Structures are given as C-alpha cells and as structure tokens.
# Entry
Amino acid sequence: MAINIKQLTKEFSDPLSIGITSGHRLCPGCAAPMTVKMALMVAKHLGYEVVVGLATGCLEVSTTIYPYTAWSIPYIHNAFENAASTIAGVETAYRALKKKGKLPVDKPIKFIAFAGDGGTYDIGLQALSGAVERNHNFLYILYDNEGYMNTGNQRSGSTPPGSETTTAPVGKAIPGKLQLKKNIVEIVAAHENVYAATATVGEPFDYMNKVEKALKFEGPSFIAVLSPCVRFWRIPEDAAPSITKLAVETKYWPLYEVEKGVYRITKKPRSFKPIREFIEKQGRFRNLLKHPDADRIISELQDYVDKRWERLLALEEATRDKPAR
Amino acid sequence: MIAEKTRLAITGAEAVAHAMRQINPDVVAAYPITPQTPIVENFAKFVADGIVDTEMIPVESEHSAMSAVVGAAAAGARAMTATSANGLALMHEIVYIAASTRLPIVMPVVNRALSGPINIHCDHSDTMAERDSGWIQLFAENAQEAYDLTIIALKLAEHESVLLPVMVNQDGFIISHGVEPVEILPDDVVRNFIGEKKPRYSLLDVENPVTYGPLDLYDYYFEHKRQQVEAMENVFEVFPKVVEEFAEISGRKYNFIEPYRLEDAEHVMVALGSTNGTIKDVVDELRAEGKKVGLLKIWMYRPFPKAEIQRELYGRKTVVVLDRSMSFGAEAPLYAEVKSALYEAPAKPLMGSFIYGLGGREILPEHIRSAFEMAVAGELVVDDQKYLGLRE
# Structure
C-alpha cells in the first residue's frame, strides 16, 4: 500500500470512520492518539475490521470515561498487565466461533492491543511473551513514552538514563536513573515466528508501512512506537513529531524491523546528530544537564547509541536472506 | 459420545472434565496447578482427540488464564478455566473484573490451602479469599456433585437476569483424586439443558461496537456495584428453577442447602464440601444412640442463602459450624455468617465454631463426634474458637 495522505484524508473524512474520535481527554500534543489513529487508518484502509484491547494507562483512562467512549470500534480494557492475554482471549474466541459457524458477523477482523511502556516493558512483559510464544494472530502496539506518565512520571524499565522522574529524581548523590532502557524489540524478536519493529510518530509513513506489514504477518507482531508525553518530557505541545524525528537522527531510536530473525533498518539518515541535541531539547533532562556527572553520562549514552547502530548494521548484514524459519 | 446415562468409576477431576466435555466450551484457558491439573489434563486429551472442538489457550500463568477467559467471554464465547489455591490468588485481580464485567464464566476450583507455608492439600482458604469478589460460589460434597454442579453452574451463570461468574468448588485430593461411582448424563441431554449461549454484547459484533471495561469514577461506579448486588439477589429466584430443570433430566435434586436428618434435631452442624459425607455418617451413629443431631450442608455459599439457613436453624438448641479456613483476628467465615443469620432468631441457639482440616489435616469421625458431644453437653462457648485434630 503506497500511503497517500490526500486519499486517506478523503477516505476518513467522517471522524467516526477511523475508530477513535476526537473529544477524548488526552493532553493536547500527546502522541498516543496519533499512534492509534495511524494504525487504525491503515487497518481500515486494508479492509479489516478491528477489535482493540487496551492496557490500563493514559490512553485507556482518557478515552473511556464512563458513560462516554472515544471508540467507535469494539474495545476492551481489562487491567494493566494483561493487554496481551486479554486480546489473546478475544482472538481465540474469534477462531473458535468462526470454526463453529457462530460468529455474529463474518468479516476479517484484526486484533490490536495498545499498551504503554509500563504495561509492556514492566508489568505486562510476561503476558506479552506468553501471547507471542503461543502464536496468537494479533498486533501489539506499544506507545512508549518512557515512564509511568498516567500516574505522574515515575521511572519505568523504558526510562532513559538521566531522565527526571519522581521515583528516580536527579539528586545530589544520584544523577537520576542510572540504567539503560530495556531493549524491548530485541526481547520480542527473540521469540520464534514474530514480526517486531520500532517506529515513531515523527516518521508516519515508516510507521504505517510497518503496521501494514504487521497486520499481514501470519502470527504475532509487535511495534514499539516512540510516543512522547509532552507533559513529562517537558516539551512544547507541538513538538512530539519533531523530537521523535530528532530521536531517529541521533540514533536514540533507530528505525528497524526484525521479521523472523531477519533485520532490516528502515531509515538510514545520511548524517547523524549528536545525542546531546536530543537531550538538550527536553526539560526532563534539565536537571541532568546541571549535574556534575552530565558530561560523562551523555558521552556514555553517545557511545552506547553508536555501538548499537554498528551492531544493527552488522545484524542486518548477517541475517540478510537468513530467516530463522 | 455418551448417549445413555452411564455410571463410571472416576475421580472428581475426571467428572468435571466430563462436564466440560459435554459443555464443549468455545475457549478454555488454563495453567497447571496441583490439584487442579487432572481436570485440565483430561480436558486437553478430549481436545487433542477431537472429541470437543474447544480452542485451548495454554497460558503462561493463572493471571493470564483469567484475563484470556475474560477476553473470550466478552467476545461472546463460552469460556472456562480451572484452578486451585495460589493460582486463584494470582487471578484475584481479574476475578473481580470478571464479575463486575458480568461475564458468565464457570470455573471449577479444586480447593487447596493457600501459601504460606506452601502446602498442596485441601482447605478452603483459597476460595474464601474470593468470597467478596462477586462470584457465585457452589460447593460439592463428592464427585457426582462436582459434575452436576458444573453443568448447573453454566446455566445459572448465563441466565439473563444473573450474568455472573460461578466457582464450582471441590475439595482438593479428597474429591479431585478420589475415585467414586459417578453417573454421567447423555451428552445430548446436557447440551439441550445448557442450550446455546446468546451474548447480548459481543466484541466480535463489529456492526454494534461496544466498549468493555471503561473508567468508571465516583459518578457511576457505585451504581454499577449496586447492580451486582441485584444480580446476586436474582440468583435466589433463578437457581431454584435451574435445579428443578436439572432434577428433571437427572433425578438428582439440588438446592441452596441440604438438610440431613434435621426433622427433630436439637443440635445441628453446618459445613461445606466433602466433610459433609463424614458428618452424615456420624449423625447416623449418634441418632442410633438416641441423640437428636442433624446436619445442614451448604451447597451455595455465595450468594449466602440466609433465609433458607434461618428456616432450618430457628428453634434449634445448638448450632455447630465447621470451617476449613480462618479469618485471622476475627471469626471464621462460615461461622460468622451463620451467626449473623441467626441475629434475628426469636430464641438464639448456643453456637460453637470449630476449625478443622487446614492444609489437608485429616478430619475423622471422632473429631466430628467430639464437637457434637460438646454441643449435646451444653459445653459450647460462643466466642471460643475450637480446633479439631490440632496438636496443642
């Protein structure tokens, strides 16, 4: 599918036709609804019906405050850590009822789970791994805003080093979070028969192409979307797309996919910017920058992203035409 | 395929697996835990052999088992799981969600002591931890009842004025692993009895999209909780009809409670589960000795059949309540509730609370006899919790 913005605008001129509508209560500039909207437009454009499952989090609480809902497609939220197992149950019911000829409407349905980084890297990791291992046919989209933003900016397994959070604050003794972000795509890609990719709202076409690939993939698929929280990244409301573009240009968030073990980098910038530029643009690193250890931490991060990029290039080379199965 | 009533020598776990085979759920998601495992193993074999066309989800935890079952039930499927002890505790969060989402899930629970210390044998601490979760809770005395109540539970759960999940409790090992004669109904009879599930709201009905599990704050949450109370109250009307229909197909009569030799009994014991079988024997022995004793067996613990219990216990001299779990720092669950039910009694009986069988500790006829003898001798002390078979 070659994405044509003009055509999409026309196709989805009715706001109810996408699946998520305006009127939800997410912050202005939040990238989460963009993440959802782009994915749903692709699915609908391809002719699929969609059932979504959500983990507890900003997106869930802000779109379904009873008696209102921002969803014009079937939606289920169960709890925080079980988006993957809940959607697995829905998907299995679909297969079972289809097999028994008991479906209310027989149309091709795709199952998409949306969860934040807390619900994915941390508390929901087991359920995600189990659902992927069992080979359910579903797409799991992580909107990664690098912290527990719904509860007011606490550290998660996705928070980068030096980022200011309320549970790993930058203090005199400790310069904020010390550990690197977990590499969630590698974790998911380590399962057999899976499509796993990174994406971001600042690169919509790259993201939407991956959604298409993921939906057409037979088996579980996973897309980690870097999806800024403007409130706690302390960036302007219009900055989510530009800051995530910069994340790609600084190697902070390389865009790639792993399909059955085969790596492919989907965007290779001609030249890279230093990671410091990405850090300096965000208020969440303000206190780190004032800290005496700032230079060391930033240079270690630079070293890390450089090495990771080199590794990715090598993996792309090494796995070319060598799918795991 | 079973076309006629058949008597099989099977365990309680196998009996429940047969009930599940006849129900033929659309989805079963389960995780192994002793002593629930033989239910799932036997059922998995039915799936593997194509005897049922259920889709099984071999989940990676009980938390995911209940989560997947919630997802499947919300998608309109008939969905089941089974568990024990720590597995039920791990599900706890989603157990509440299943009830408040009004999903008619049936879950056999093979009762086992909750950790810690870790133990694999029977007591009721696992299911008692869920007594306020909004699930209907039924207790079987033996394998036959475990089978029957599983089928009854399904019809009760799916009744449109109930729409609540049901736990069917059977005592771990004692029932689940003990071989007994069990009468299995013909498959088509069971299928006709349960009928087809007709979900009002399904996630797969894409033409009529619904939002399941919204954020429900101070302006509506309270009303929704009140509706759960109403659904529980409706069970008192629906359950008698369901068990009457079941009696027509099976000849076996169920109710909220089972009175045993209560007609002129002055001293009544109240209990849940398999121990009722032993109590019946002791009652017979004591009756032969001329003592006016009887038993009130509780089949349905949630909703708590207060009116029926009052009807049977008013006018008795003493009431002895046996609990297979405790509430540390407070009265044991069944005792507290029976005592509360007797608050309005015109003449209050003398009551005694006895804890027994924790972690699978054997309960012998002499233990039950000693409790009855205390009652007959007028030695019960209302607020003195006693222990049967405990070394002190």
